[in-house]
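The records we work with from here on pair a chain with its fold. Each token is a code from a learned vocabulary of local backbone shapes. A record is reproduced here so that you can trace the correspondence yourselves:

_____
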Amino acid sequence: MTLGLVQAQPAGPTDAEAIAASLQSPRLFAAVFERHHPAVHRYLARRLGADLADELAAEAFAVAFAKRKRYNGAFEDARPWLFGIATRLAHRHWRREERELRAYSRSGVDPAAPPHDERVAARADSAVAGPALAAALAALS
């Protein structure tokens, strides 16, 4: 009985073969992308949400493409390599987000709060006064 953890490689070149061939013909890397993008995207979406998953999955494949010369061809399946790249990108995102939140807490500024400057108050006042101003202008000869 299998647990469904091992994905059978589809017909055609293995990931290792496609990556090696993409060194001469970069468009051949598309086979790796098409084969693994859905799984990498799902992995990231479960951890970061769908919007960030879109961005980081694309970035993971850009990183993989850029570093494909260093791929160890002894491993036919590139999925663990791609998940490693995706995991590092997710951790980098979490660290960056944590640094931003710490900086906001030190500054005393709530980034989600609406701005409280005079221009906002002036716009609100003019929006309220708008109809009365229009009526006064219309009464002029």
